[in-house]
Amino acid sequence: MKVKIDADVCTGCGLCADNCPDVFVLENDLAKVKVDPVPASAEECARQAVQDCPVSAISEE
User: Fold this and answer.
1) Which of 11, 25, 28, 52 is the most exposed place for a label (fewest CB within 10 A)?
2) Angstrom distance (rounded) from CA 41 to CA 57
3) Quick one: pLDDT at residue 60?
4) Which of 2, 5, 38, 61 is nearest to 15 (CA)?
5) Mind giving me the DSSP string for the chain?
6) How many CB atoms lie within 10 A of CB 47?
């Protein structure tokens, strides 16, 4: 799986990086995807991050 973050929408709350640090990181107050594709071992937390993002800035591709 792949995930994408819309930098124009991201508010940098950090929820994704807190809950799925193997996939997401905060840089300059915005979330970034740090692995592509998402490793199988992190797919569940990545999908949860997509669902939990308060501004829907993360999407699964």
Assistant:
1) 28
2) 22
3) 96
4) 5
5) --EEE-TTT-----HHHHH-TTTEEEETTEEEE-SSSPPGGGHHHHHHHHHH-TT--EEE-
6) 16
CA dihedral 18, 19, 25, 30 (to 10 degrees): -70
Fold assignment, 3-60: Alpha-Beta Plaits (3.30.70)
The pTM (predicted TM-score) of the whole model is: 0.93
Mean pLDDT of the chain: 97
Strands 3-5 and 58-60: antiparallel
Is 36 exposed, middle or buried, given 0-12, 13-18 or 19+ CB atoms closer than 10 A?
A: exposed
Residue numbers of the chain with a pLDDT score lower than 70? none
